[in-house]
Queue: 2 jobs
Job 1
Amino acid sequence: MKNKSKIIVRQIGLLLLYSMAISGALWLSYELRFDFNPEPEVMVHFGLILACMIGLKLVLLLVFGQFGSLLSYFGVQDLARIFLALLSASGIALVVWFFKAVSYAPPRAVILTDLMLSFLVLCAIRMGFRLLREGYFDGDGDSDGDDGGQYRQIGIIGAGDVGASLVKDLLVRRGLRMKPVAFFDDDRGKWKTSIHGVPVVGAPEIIPEFLRKAKLDEAIIAMPSASGKRLNEIVQLLTRVGIKSEIVPSYEQLVTGKVSVSRVRPVEVEDLLGREEVSLDSAAIRKFIEGRVVMVTGAGGSIGSELSRQIARYNPSRLLMLDQAEPSLFVIEQEMIEAGMGALVQPLVADVLDQPRMSYLFKRFKPEVIFHAAAHKHVYLMERQPAEAIHNNSIGTRLLAQMAATHGVTAFVMISTDKAINPTSIMGASKRLAEVHLQALQANNHTATKFIAVRFGNVLGSSGSVIPIFKKQIAAGGPVTVTHADVTRYFMTIPEASGLVMQASVLGKGGEIFVLDMGQPVKIVDLARQMIELSGFKVGEDIEIKFTGLKPGEKLYEELQHLDEHHLPTEHPRIMRFVPGNDARESSAKAITEIEGALYKVSNNELKALLQKVVSEYTPFFD
């Protein structure tokens, strides 16, 4: 009831304000037409004309939706609607004048002048309320002091659509206390121009020269499509001159409306390692997933949760999210519910090694496609307990894949790793053995199930990867620990890896090992140095980098293929297919008879030696 009263009061106020503006515009139109000295006989019918014009214009403004909009929110659409409403009113008045329908119709000049004045006055009123709301009359807009109540001087790097939207947003949201003072852009054609009153002064490389003549408190990078290499160059430049850098959200976040362009954030190392956007055959992926029951094991993990998000967009009939870690499964379930997918997803707490439980789930839910992301993945942790790595990664995969074939699953896609290539760790060797089991199952397969493995390197920001560890070490004041000065790793983003896994599942015919294009390897020491600098510290002065030596099972660098594998292209430029040079059935059978029975009966070294006999390319580390 209270809200209804407020609306009525607002509408009455708006009615009176518009009526006063229309009256003033019509009166001034008469004054201008007759040189501010209208004859009495001219004005004899002014009151009647005024009443008619006010009524007509108010009705048309109502028709064009100008009584339902808030006064202080005024944009191009409102401007156009006000003009159309007033133009319609003036058009009706001209028709009355032309046909002489009434003897007291206003002169043509008055009608046309009234149109222009009414439009200007109403727009001025709306714009005034908007400026009042946005704080343009606070009196401190030009302040450039250093205290918290004054404006920070902001440089915008990137004078494209995103940069322009950012400046517009900052000018509107004056409560952010950020004043854009200059654009910097690589495009020479934009130099010496201005956007929303902010000059484009040159390329980012002139920032040191610009600082000699002006002040910058902060720089915001508004280049969501820029390469990681270019972002790296800009961030290093800003770091050298002591300017704090932030970045706008990604294109995906902006387009989906998750965040606004002014929701800037600190530059992360993930931005500097950014890769080109992956092009996916969405139609083929949708055809593969839509209407099917899809199971994701390890759904609470980094890859499993992202796979679940992406799969849900392709409209499966049911998404089974399976994980033995109940807390992480709860997190992704809540995210899906908040995204409006609660009716689609089915969280399942289960261990893939629990055969009775898994058999029940297959009979109950009848999965048609399985993405197997559940695995033990931490190299050094698994190196000290090889039985668990083999039990979960190798035997768990074999048992789940056999169950998939028994229940007529269409496709079984295992998430593998580049550490399975010529492995030196038990984790890598256990994943390689899992690949062998899948290839053997494919060779012996008499069902329609196709078995596929997809390899890729480290994913940025996943649990246990170097980036979260480095962040924690930097927050603690260092040192940042790196195993070796020359160690390199391949990195991918989690969404990129997950998207390409789904693409590979479409390409697979069965028995293939797909390898994702992982770009160029990154030196871990360079990664550590970048993260320290992005945090506002200096390497060696504020935070040290300490070399600890390679741990057992670790490599200096990752490889791309086994010696007995042949690399073949696929229909997708970012996905390669490897065809093994030997039959996997003998190795798989040998592993089942010689390793699985001895799993918890022999020492770690003996177990590694048994695994080496099956995975001949494995070079184990013996205690």
Note: Residues 595 and 611 are 7 Å apart (CA to CA).
Job 2
Amino acid sequence: MDVYKEFGVSKQENPFAIVPEETIRKNLQGLKEYGFSREQIIKIVCGLPETLNCSWKRTEMIFNNLVEYGFSREQVIKIVCGLPQTLGYSWKRTGGILTNLGEYGFSREQIIKIVCGLPATLSCSWERTGGILNNLEKYGFSREQVIKIVCISFGTLSCSWKRTENILNNLEEYGFNSKQVIKIVYSFPQILGYSWERTSGILNNLEKYGFSSKQIIKIVCTFPAILGCSWERTEKILNICKNIGFNILNAPHKLMFSPETLQSRINFLRIKFEMENEKLLKTIFASNKAFEKRFGISREELLKDYLD
């Protein structure tokens, strides 16, 4: 049987016409037996045609080294599918990157999490990756903070330092001081993955809603995750709070509640107990567990029966 037809790989995807068909078959069969699906094998060959030219012994060694490091077989498959070039790198290079991350202070568990979340980590030189980590420290983040940021927002390592620096500088230009910027990024690392256009859009919308720059800085510093919420969601919560006479500046973290949860609770309490705003304010921000325990109704029931 034709090896290309057997594995669903097009001849055009293999530039190594001079490679014996048996070598090609052995590589494809090896990938299949390791656990890669046909679609994944095609993706790997398209991403790294040289896979067909390597000895299976070399490819298998890379797999074994990754497993020996601590990756599961499923994780190895995920990494190779995400970055087929992994099979083209020497283990000395790949192992060196893993070692460097460990020497910086990441635990092995954290390194595995980072590489699985961002296989491209293995494609970057340590000069580049280490430079990003060191620049964050130079800005004012502690090493422990840098590690936490990267473990939550893997993309920090894939972005250029220039882009990251622009985000930090733009926050300062808006009015946040460097300590506040550090607090925001540490509490909500995902901000480094957003475009400034998106982040500034949220800040501008808060201004249009009526908040001053000083008030916005207070809100964001207290609840940094607001920068990860859609404006539609945030505006709904602000309107709900406004309608019941709650000043969000007194407790910006209340913005974490979903507008649907708050509105269904308000409707329920007004219908069942004819509660006025003063009493509502003492009740609607309870945890789901506490609210259910007190009133005998779950969040799911509230959303089903009392959401407009």
Note: DSSP finds 18 helices and no strands in the chain.
